[in-house]
Amino acid sequence: MSVPREIGIGLISVGWMGQLHSRAYANLPIVYPELGIKPRLVQAADTAADRVDYAINALGYESGTDDYREVLANPEIDVVSICAPNFLHAEIAEAAARAGKAFWIEKPAGRSAAETQGIADAAAEAGVATAVGFNYRSAPAIEYARQLVAEGTLGRITNVRGAFFADYSSEPNGALSWRFIRKLAGTGVLGDLMGHLVDLAHYVVGPIDKITAATSTVYTERPELPMGTGTHFAVVENGKMLPVENEDYASMLVSFGDDAQGAGAVGTLEASRVAVGPRAQYGLEVYGTEGSLRWNFERLNELELALGRSGPHVGYTTVLANSHFGDFARFQPGAGTPMGYDDLKVIEAKKFLTAFLGRESVHADIRDALAAQRVVSAAEASATDRSWQDIAPVAGTSAARKTEEGGRD
Ligand SMILES: NC(=O)c1ccc[n+]([C@@H]2O[C@H](COP(=O)([O-])OP(=O)(O)OC[C@H]3O[C@@H](n4cnc5c(N)ncnc54)[C@H](O)[C@@H]3O)[C@@H](O)[C@H]2O)c1
Questions:
Q1: From-to residues of CATH 3.30.360.10 in the chain
Q2: Exposed, middle or buried, 333 (CB in 10 Å: 0-12/13-18/19+)?
Q3: Where is each GFO/IDH/MocA-like oxidoreductase domain found (predicted)?
Q4: Per DSSP, which regions of 13-155 are E strands?
Q5: CATH code assigned to 5-135
Q6: Could you tell me what percent of the chain has a pLDDT over 70?
Q7: pTM reported for the whole predicted model
Q8: pLDDT at 212
Q9: What CA–CA distances, in Å, run from 140 to 239, 302, 303?
């Protein structure tokens, strides 16, 4: 094997996602040795000093800083992971593009469609590769679902049902992290979970062209939590109560455009961060004239499939992820031994660094983030006036399209 190409990595923010990106970079050459890529963890930035220490001492970064600008100015760094809270995304991503650094940004890229457009424009102008943390599309069962829809195995797609239901804020004293404050997060569950679901629907079925939405806030006050402490699962007893500024639950009626693989299909998409029962039940169901499929993140390695309308086996069969499904075989030698959430980020890191090297990669980039965010921002508008909203198409996404499987028009 030739000497691997070293890629200098900069990390901005060392919270849950920053740590996960770092583990993904570390695992990439082990899981995909043939790519000849060797990520080098150069520098990490966080305003919380203990997280910088963790980045150096546990994750293995060579240096740390409390100022992300140092990471962007570091000539040893080729690409950056932007894992900061949402309010910093546009500022950091646009600065990264201006500095000529490719970036892998966590979702939602911008807090609104306008902000995401600004990031997309900056990346296009600088000509830097981008990736967005829509990790669920890399689940092997989802990759296979996309393939089944594209091959027509389910027949004509008639309807889609998706629900991303989490309980991370179901506790009334769940902390008021940055996620609940409008200027820090933008929307609530719409940007946090609905964006993921919209991306899955785009990736498997095709671009959404119209929506109408309703939202609600179940808990209107929560105890405050200082930035950089705890997680968004934290519960604070007897804390100072402050207002929740965005929605806990959202639902949408959607239709898919003429160019979608599932052209003419309609459906419902819902998201909640306060569900009691589902833990991280992130599900997508696709129904067609010849069959249907359903997947749920809590059962990451299972795809439920129903093919055909008659015969003794009509109805759902559970197929365990196996070597025919996406990158499953990279992680486990045989079906039945499950992959995990962290593995999805290793796949995402592979797609990002492959794109950075100018090699072919069908992955979520900033255009896909813009497409999802247009739906999210339209849902926000629709929820206030109950209108139907047209979604302007975004060129060059990896949404499932009728004519060219794999998108990228
Ligand atoms: N893809 C997914 O499934 C997924 C899951 C969770 C979070 N996310 C996204 O990842 C992003 C980060 O979320 P998280 O859960 O890791 O958050 P977190 O709260 O765990 O971490 C955020 C970190 O940012 C740091 N920070 C704050 N201000 C900073 C600044 N000015 N410069 C540098 N660092 C700063 C904080 O100190 C903290 O360490 C968000 O955009 C979120 O929506 C994506």
A1: 137-340+362-390
A2: exposed
A3: 143-294
A4: 37-45, 63-65, 79-82, 102-105, 130-132
A5: 3.40.50.720
A6: 97
A7: 0.96
A8: 98
A9: 42, 9, 9
Q: Specify the residue with its C-alpha closest to ligand 1, atom 21.
A: 15
Closest ligand 1 atom to the C-alpha of 45? 33
pLDDT digits (tens, 9 = 90+) for 133-150: 999 999 999 999 999 999
Atom nearest to 135 CA in ligand 1: 1
Mean pLDDT (the chain) is 96
Question: Residue 372's Cα: distance from chain center in Å?
Answer: 10
137-340+362-390 has which CATH code? 3.30.360.10
Note every long-range contact of 2-7, with CB atoms under 8 Å and residues 24 or more positions apart, other chains counting: 2/36, 3/36, 4/29, 4/36, 4/37, 4/38, 5/36, 5/37, 5/38, 5/357, 6/38, 6/39, 6/40, 7/37, 7/38, 7/39, 7/40, 7/78, 7/79, 7/353, 7/356
> Which spans in 6-112 are helix H?
16-31, 49-54, 68-73, 89-98
Which of 66, 117, 19 is closest to 374 using CA atoms?
A: 117
Q: What is the pLDDT of residues 81-97, one digit of tens each?
A: 999 999 999 999 999 99
Residue 39 CA to ligand 1 center (angstroms) comes to 21
Q: Which secondary-structure segment (H or E) carries 198? A: helix 195-204
